[in-house]
Amino acid sequence: MNSCGLSLESAIAVSEKIQFQSPERPDLVLALLRNYGFSKTNNSNLIRKRPWLLLSHPHNILLPKLEFFRSIGLSSSELARTLSSETTLLTRSLENKIIPTYEFLKSVLLSDEKEDCYCLETHYMVRSLIPNVAYLKE
């Protein structure tokens, strides 16, 4: 049994929540995450919180989000640390939620492009793209 880096107890709990016909897609998801700097611990945290991500299409759903976060300056370690703790980000639409929220926060909070990572980690990711960010205008 492939436990995806989880303890036996956690792997059993996850297996009760999701079922897949073959390990092909989960293996592709884990390989993609490893290619983006996720450690076994990062993957374990992510899967324990969002087990259904193992069933997502890695190239259509996850890859564009990972590429976006890298394009705005997150290092591999920042990306892995942030997304494995703020897993809600991977459940949001890139086009309809992540990019518009990032652009809004960037326009409100940033005066220098070097602060992109700070903006993401402190405001954008911690709040996990809450539906209404109007409180920032106050």
Describe, in plain words, how this protein is organized in 3D:
- Helix content is 59%, strand content 0%.
- The protein contains seven helices and no strands.
- It is elongated, with a radius of gyration of 16 Å.
- By secondary structure, the protein is an all-alpha fold.
- The chain has helices at residues 8-17, 24-35, 40-49, 58-71, 76-85, 94-109, 116-124.
- α2 runs parallel beside α4, α3 (40-49) runs parallel beside α5 (76-85) and α6 (94-109) crosses α7 (116-124).
Count of beta strands:
0
N-to-C series of helices and strands: HHHHHHH
Radius of gyration: 16 Å
Taking pLDDT < 50 over at least 5 consecutive residues as the criterion, the unreliable ranges are 128-138
Strand content: under 5%
Quaternary form: single chain
Largest sheet: none
Percent of residues in helices comes to 55-70%
- SSE class: mainly alpha
Distance between the termini: 52 Å
Give the overall shape: elongated
> For the residues shown, what is the average pLDDT?
78
Q: Give the helix tally.
A: 7
Please give a handful of descriptors for the protein shown.
mainly alpha; 0% strand; 138 residues
